[in-house]
Specification:
Length: 226
């Protein structure tokens, strides 16, 4: 990994020796959302935001926004990592997430004492998982959408016709699949050993998948708010 350049003024990286998480799991509920590219994570997150009051944070969206920010000193680095299907250095991703959580909590300070966050597409490798749990907030569990690779590829090719995303092309898709298997599945396995994974088959239609998600959320003590 290349050395990180100096951070931009509005993206301060946390001190590496930080021992206490910024947020307590007694006050903040964090659920990681993982699944291969094209598993339908975004669609399911939208349902959970609507019905359970979560704030949806997409690690990929935050990275793309930082990549496109005109004065970002990390923009070119992020662009190169994404184009190659590689994982962006974890210090950047974790700090972007912490910043986004802090902004949301400050906005809603007067309306609720307990906040709920869905973090979509994160953690994508073990160092991200360990860093976030230690420095930002321990998660409640990981919601893992399990889907066959051929179906995910079909979905992404179709999405690429209209999405405008640079990584929705055949070459990038293959790299993203390989990266997910090699780096993200060990994260799922790690949390599964702790009893902190909810696995849902994502091979069916979105509504059928969401029906199962709701059952599993209820079993974990999350009630719908609407």
């Amino acid at each position: 990994m290349p050395a990180l350049p100096p951070p931009a003024d509005n993206l301060k990286l946390s001190a590496p020796g930080k021992n206490t998480p910024t947020f307590s799991p007694d006050d903040i509920s964090v659920i990681y959302v993982l699944g291969g590219p094209g598993a339908g994570k975004g669609t399911q997150c939208a349902h959970l935001v609507r019905d359970y009051g979560f704030k949806h944070l997409s690690a990929g969206d935050l990275l793309r926004a930082e990549q496109n920010r005109p004065d970002s000193q990390f923009g070119n680095m992020i662009k190169d990592y994404i184009a190659d299907g590689k994982i962006v250095p974890m210090e950047i991703t974790v700090q972007l997430l912490e910043n986004a959580m802090t902004d949301e909590i400050n906005k809603r300070k007067e309306t609720s004492t307990v906040k709920r966050f869905l973090i979509d597409g994160f953690p994508r490798q073990m160092d991200q998982a360990l860093r976030f749990e230690e420095a930002v907030c321990p998660s409640q569990f990981t919601l893992f959408f399990d889907c066959p690779e051929n179906l995910m590829q079909e979905r992404l090719i179709n999405r690429g016709k209209t999405s405008g995303r640079a990584d929705d092309n055949a070459e990038s898709i293959k790299k993203r699949f390989r990266t997910f298997i090699e780096t993200s599945m060990p994260v799922v396995d790690y949390f599964e050993k702790q009893g902190k994974v909810v696995k849902v088959s994502a091979a069916k239609g979105p509504e059928e998948v969401y029906a199962e998600v709701k059952k599993r959320m209820g079993a974990r003590g999350f009630e719908m708010i609407r």
